[in-house]
Amino acid sequence: MNNFHYQTNELYCENISLTQIAQEVGTPTYVYSLAEIKERANSYQQTGSSERKTVCYAVKANQNPRILEILRDAGLGADVTSGGELFLALHAGIAPEKIIYSGVGKRRDEINMALDANIRALHVESAMELDVIAEIASERQQIVRIGVRVNPNISVETHPYMSTGETLHKFGVTPETAVSLLHTAREHPYLQPVAVAAHIGSQITDIVPFAASAQFLTNMAEELASSGIHLNYIDVGGGLGIDYQSPTSSPQIVDWVTAVSTPVHQAGFDIVMEPGRSIIAPTGMLLTQVEYLKIQGKKPFLIVDAGMNDLLRPTLYKAYHPIMRVQQSEADLIDYDIVGPICETGDTFAQKRQLPATKAGDLLAIGQAGAYGYAMSSNYNGRLRPAEVLVDGDQYTIIRQRQSYEHLLDGIS
Ligand code: LLP
């Protein structure tokens, strides 16, 4: 189902025209489709056994509290990576037994916060971290469930910043260390080994390495069982990519869930998965207005009112996002560089992107922007973070107000 579509030459989100949203809320604004969010969450929830699977949405992809509530209602849990994300997951009413905490640098206060909430497990990423958790668990005389994040040394095709599962990366521990840490946990009066986990990277569109990683973890869990450590679940991480160039060719969530669950369930373990992008990226667009047309030499620039502070991905990863006119046009096609107002050459959404001739005041929509969009926004260049709008049929709600200039003084004494 495509919840962003043209109707009488106008781009709509469900039954609301993006022109109407721009007029009433202003630009730049992130616009999300509720139907699309529910549909994608349900693809994860409804594939395969629901009792033996927990889908822990990776909060880092989009942490809007209203979106977290929608995902909670769809039955999802949360994968958190900081005290802030844990706060937001709990605030959204996600049950602690559906929350897992991954991350290489958990501070003591964050560990205490996770123990206060009694979440499902802490996923440990180093021997030193396990020592700190053990110390805190002993002080508090509280049983702590421990998963260990393993680095399965599987290389994947993605941007180098998004590959995480090889030994050269900071994430996880080697399989040998993982086994030794789980044994250490078993010997400790307050630690309980419950899981092995891996996350091989993000924006990976080939399902094969995920299946290999799931099989690898399953083999490890079976070997551990033969040495007396009976784990409760296997966490296969997230990372399923989408096709930004041709969204309809994206890999199917059901195929991924089936591929990773099969080895895990066959061996009799429960599964946890941590998807972010594949749920939320296609549900959102960044709506922006063209401020100026500028011809530099022979090169036409469209200068829009969104910048790299609103959507960093093209700047940081040279990531491709589809860009379309909100009002369709039959005008001649022109190759534009589409850039923001920020004082950085890298503040560029696209180079030589073909669009029908466009003028100041026209609206553009940057697609597939629901994940790692608002979540990575900033106030760089004194710019205000954009508004976020959720569309439900022919209604919309502002789920986050645009910042005002006073926000730039937050916390200043
Ligand atoms: N679990 C862990 C431990 C992770 O580190 C991540 C993402 C996920 C799950 C969710 O991965 P996903 O299903 O969304 O691929 N800023 C980059 C993406 C960085 C992903 C970091 N970790 C981007 O804009 O593409």
What descriptors fit this protein?
20 strands; 26% strand; alpha/beta; binds ligand LLP; eight-stranded parallel β-barrel; 413 residues; nine-stranded mixed beta sheet
Q: Figure out the total of helices.
A: 11
The number of strands is 20
From the alpha carbons, calculate the radius of gyration and give it in angstroms.
23 Å
Which shape, going by the Cα principal axes?
A: elongated
What is the helix content?
A: 25-40%
Instruction: Estimate the strand proportion.
Output: 25-35%
Which class do the helix and strand fractions yield? alpha/beta
Q: What average pLDDT do the residues reach?
A: 96
Q: Describe it for me?
A:
The protein has 11 helices and 20 strands. The protein starts with a strand and ends in a 13-residue tail after the last strand. 29% of the residues lie in helices and 26% in strands. The chain is elongated. The model has no long low-confidence stretch (mean pLDDT 96). It has helices spanning 18-25, 34-46, 65-73, 83-91, 108-117, 127-140, 175-187, 208-226, 253-266, 277-280, 313-317, and strands spanning 4-7, 10-13, 16-17, 29-33, 53-58, 77-80, 99-101, 121-124, 144-149, 191-197, 233-235, 270-273, 284-296, 299-304, 323-325, 333-339, 348-356, 363-366, 387-392, 395-400. Strands 4, 13, 14, 15, 16, 17, 18, 19 and 20 form a 9-stranded mixed sheet that branches. By secondary structure, the protein is α/β, with parallel strands linked by helices. Ligand LLP binds at residues 58, 60-61, 79, 102, 162, 199, 202-203, 237-240, 274-278, 313, 372. Ligand LLP binds next to helix 10.
